[in-house]
Specification:
Layout (H helix, E strand, L loop, with lengths): L11 E3 L13 H9 L3 E8 L5 E3 L6 H4 L28 H8 L4 E6 L5 H12 L5 E6 L2 H10 L5 E4 L8 H8 L5 E5 L5 H10 L4 E7 L2 H10 L2 E4 L11 H5 L4
Parallel strand pairs: 1-2, 1-9, 2-4, 4-5, 5-6, 6-7, 7-8, 8-9
Antiparallel strand pairs: 2-3
Helix pairs in contact: 1-3
């Protein structure tokens, strides 16, 4: 029996508890800040050419580091060359994030789409197999989630969908739901008629909505989802407050 309870005990910060000013997204500081607040984090991993996993979201480092470098081409022996948004934080190694968090970590690990499915997934498993915190994996790439179903079905596995998938969801969702432990769906354009009947038929399955930022999207998620991945920024007037996000599970 898989341990899913921890996924229902705290909400999850999108790329850590960041503000993209002094605390950048997907930084060691953002993940520590989330853990210290008793929150989980969602993060993104790539496998680099030197066989290391780094935590980064975009297909290049341009937005966060000002350099048009592909994540898989990063030389991890020189991560100091990739400061995040001009701060002291640099693109982190996944192993360093895990060491920082220790048993406090509650992580949804998104494996970014790659042509190297087997080597990437094996590297992620090797990094996490002895980790003392709680973790699960998710991906947009069906080849990646299928790899985990085949090789490590004991792991909690989630399928990510984006808004462009919605025209296909009625058929694919029912098929994929059989092997997934949760679905991660966007809060922007939810279609309740797609999800509520399936949730009723399979109440053991979870739906996690991303990315909740505003009061309106919070209420949408309340109607449909079992949990949320959220962002909050007190400098943005339309953003939900941290305490509001924390209240989702109450």
């Amino acid at each position: 029996m898989k341990d899913m309870q921890w996924l229902k005990e705290t909400v999850f910060c999108h790329r850590g508890l960041h503000n993209n000013r002094d605390v950048p997204e997907n930084s060691r500081a953002a993940f520590l800040r989330a853990a210290e607040a008793g929150l989980g984090s969602e993060l993104d991993v790539y496998l680099t050419r030197d066989g290391k996993l780094i935590v980064h979201h975009d297909p290049t480092l341009k937005r966060m580091c000002g350099k048009r470098v592909f994540p898989y081409n990063v030389d991890t022996s020189h991560l100091e060359n990739y400061p995040l948004l001009g701060t002291k934080e640099c693109v982190p190694l996944f192993e360093d994030v895990l060491k920082d968090l220790g048993e406090k970590g509650r992580l949804i690990v998104e494996i970014k789409t790659t042509s190297r499915v087997d080597s990437t997934c094996r590297a992620v498993y090797d990094a996490l197999k002895d980790y003392k915190g709680k973790w699960c994996i998710e991906s947009f790439n069906w080849h990646i989630t299928d790899w985990w179903v085949k090789h490590h079905p004991e792991v909690v596995i989630g399928q990510l969908y984006d808004i462009y998938s919605f025209q296909f969801l009625p058929v694919k969702l029912r098929k994929q739901y059989k092997t997934m432990d949760f679905l991660a769906i966007p809060v922007k354009k939810p279609r309740e008629e797609y999800f509520l009947p399936i949730k009723k038929a399979h109440p053991e399955k979870m739906v996690i909505m991303w990315t909740v930022r505003t009061p309106d999207t919070f209420e949408t998620a309340k109607r449909i989802a079992d949990n949320i991945i959220f962002e909050c920024d007190d400098k943005k007037a339309d953003n939900i407050a941290l305490e509001k996000a924390k209240s989702f599970l109450s």
